[in-house]
C-alpha cells in the first residue's frame, strides 16, 4: 500500500467515524454544521498556513467557490440527516450516503474514460446490491 492509498483508507475511516459522534451530540443539523466547520478550520489551519500563499495564488477561484457551496449544501443535508436519525437507523443512512458518494466519482471516471467496462458495470451493480443488503 502506498502513501496515497493509506491516506485514502485512513480518511475513509475518519469520515466513517465522525458522523457517529456527531449523531450523538444532540446538536441540531444546521448548528452542528456550523460548529463542525469551525472545529475543522481550527484543526486544519495550522497545517495549511505554510502553503497558503503559494497555493492560493494559482487557484481557480470559480472552482473553489463552486466546490465550497456544493460541500456546504451537502454538509447541511448530512448533518440534518444525522440530527434526525436514531441509533437504529444512523448506520444505514450513512451507508446510503457513502455509497452515493462513491458512485459519483466512479461515474465521473466512466465518463472520463468514455466507456463503461464490464468490471465497472459489475461494481455499480454490486454497490447497489450492497446498499440494499446493508440497509435492511
Structure in words:
This protein has helices spanning 3-23, 29-48, 52-57, 61-84, 90-113, 118-134. The protein has 136 residues and is mainly alpha-helical. α1 (3-23) crosses α4 (61-84), α2 packs across α4 (61-84) and α5 (90-113) runs antiparallel to α6 (118-134). The protein folds into two domains: 1-84, no CATH class; 87-136. The radius of gyration is 17 Å and the shape is globular. It is built from six helices and no strands. The model has no long low-confidence stretch (mean pLDDT 92). The two termini are 33 Å apart.
What is the percent of helical residues? over 70%
Distance between the ends: 33 Å
Poorly predicted sequence stretches spanning 5 or more consecutive residues: none
Taking the sheet with the most strands, its summary is: none
Radius of gyration: 17 Å
Mean pLDDT: 92
- The ordered H/E elements are HHHHHH
Subunit arrangement of the protein: single chain
Number of spatially distinct domains: 2
Total number of helices = 6
Structural class, by secondary structure, is mainly alpha
Total number of β-strand segments?
0
**Percent of residues in beta strands?**
under 5%
Gross geometry? globular
Produce a short descriptive summary.
This protein has 136 residues and is mainly alpha-helical.
Topology, element by element:
Blueprint: H1 3-23, H2 29-48, H3 52-57, H4 61-84, H5 90-113, H6 118-134
Helix pairs in contact: 1-4, 2-4, 5-6
Amino acid at each position: 500500500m502506498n502513501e496515497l492509498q493509506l491516506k485514502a483508507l485512513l480518511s475513509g475511516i475518519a469520515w466513517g467515524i465522525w458522523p457517529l459522534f456527531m449523531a450523538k451530540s444532540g446538536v441540531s443539523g444546521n448548528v452542528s454544521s456550523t460548529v463542525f466547520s469551525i472545529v475543522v478550520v481550527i484543526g486544519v489551519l495550522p497545517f495549511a498556513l505554510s502553503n497558503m500563499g503559494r497555493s492560493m495564488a494559482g487557484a481557480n477561484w470559480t472552482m473553489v467557490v463552486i466546490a465550497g457551496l456544493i460541500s456546504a449544501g451537502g454538509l447541511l443535508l448530512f448533518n440534518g440527516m444525522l440530527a434526525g436519525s436514531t441509533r437504529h437507523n444512523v448506520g444505514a443512512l450513512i451507508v446510503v450516503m457513502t455509497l452515493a458518494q462513491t458512485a459519483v466519482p466512479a461515474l465521473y471516471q466512466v465518463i472520463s474514460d468514455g466507456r463503461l467496462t464490464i468490471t465497472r458495470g459489475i461494481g455499480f451493480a454490486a454497490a447497489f446490491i450492497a446498499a440494499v443488503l446493508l440497509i435492511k
